[in-house]
Amino acid sequence: MAIAPRLTINQLQQGVRLTQMNVRVIHRWTRPNLQDKSKIEAIELLLLDAENEIIQATIWKQLISYFSSKLAVGSVYNIRNLTVQKNTGLDKATPNSCRLKFEFSSKVCATTDTTIPLNGYRFVKFEEIINGRVPTTHYIDVVGKLYEIGPIVETTKGHKCRTIKLEDIEGCQLCCTLRAPHTSQLPARLSEQPNPEQSKIIVMQCVETKKYEATTAE
């Protein structure tokens, strides 16, 4: 029996079935049900291949119990029999034209592949964000020195948020809004650092860009 060819993300085409591919899970989050926020509608994954390309994959609620425990952030897997779809909707994490969907027939197997990078950060310069040269159609990654941290405040909708200010190596500053649970997690993580007087570098993955009176990455 012939072995199915191992593909890369750049070789995927909309409307076909992914035969097999080695990827690293670099990010994972849950998408709540729109009518009942306490229920999970889907699990979203960011997958990275050996060519440093990234694609988003979705596990819908009916398959969460089967695949959730098999996919851990940082680990490498051989995945098979996923559907390749057009990357549409408001939850696009990447600029890739395609995205993946897990099916009942999909297979996941832990493997080792040292050719796949440990992360797939796509850092964007603060100056490009502030001047509106970054598309708002997908998420971005930012990194900078922690310049200022604000208090937790409650919005008109009852959500808690915290604004921090980051500074990049060019001295450009950017305001970033954190939402729960990151609002309370940040001070705890900062207190864990061995040298409290040392400058703190903040890496933010999959952030949404929005433009207000002052430009912020949220």
Word description of this protein:
The protein has 218 residues and is mainly beta. The chain folds into 2 domains: 9-110, Beta Barrel (OB fold (Dihydrolipoamide Acetyltransferase, E2P)), CATH 2.40.50; 126-217, OB fold (Dihydrolipoamide Acetyltransferase, E2P), CATH 2.40.50.140. It contains 3 helices and 12 strands; from the N terminus they run βββαβββαβββαβββ. It has helices at residues 61-67, 126-130, 182-191, and strands at 17-32, 40-48, 54-60, 76-86, 98-101, 107-110, 140-154, 160-167, 173-179, 201-207, 209-211, 215-217. The protein has a 6-stranded mixed β-sheet with strand order 10-7-8-9-12-11. A 5-stranded mixed beta barrel has the order 1-2-3-5-4. A hairpin with a 7-residue loop joins strand 1 (17-32) and strand 2. Residues 214-218 have low confidence and may be disordered. Residues 20-108 form the Replication protein A 70 kDa DNA-binding subunit B/D first OB fold domain.
Unreliably modeled segments? 214-218
CATH class placement of the largest domain = Mainly Beta
Please give the alpha-carbon distance between the first and last residues. Answer: 50 Å
Strand order of the largest sheet: 10-7-8-9-12-11
Give me the number of helical elements.
3
Tally of individual domains: 2
Shape: globular
Helix proportion of residues, in percent? Answer: 10-25%
Mean pLDDT: 88
What quaternary form is this?
single chain
What's the alpha carbon Rg, rounded to whole Å?
19 Å
CATH superfamily of the largest domain: Nucleic acid-binding proteins
- Architecture per CATH nomenclature, i.e. the level-2 architecture of the largest domain: Beta Barrel
H/E element sequence: EEEHEEEHEEEHEEE
Q: What is the percentage of strand-forming residues?
A: 35-45%
Major sheet description: 6 strands, mixed
Number of distinct beta strands: 12
CATH fold assignment of the largest domain: OB fold (Dihydrolipoamide Acetyltransferase, E2P)
Class per helix and strand makeup: mainly beta
Domain Replication protein A 70 kDa DNA-binding subunit B/D first OB fold: 20-108
Protein name: Replication protein A 70 kDa DNA-binding subunit B/D first OB fold domain-containing protein
Pfam families: DUF223
InterPro entries: NA-bd_OB-fold, RFA1B/D_OB_1st
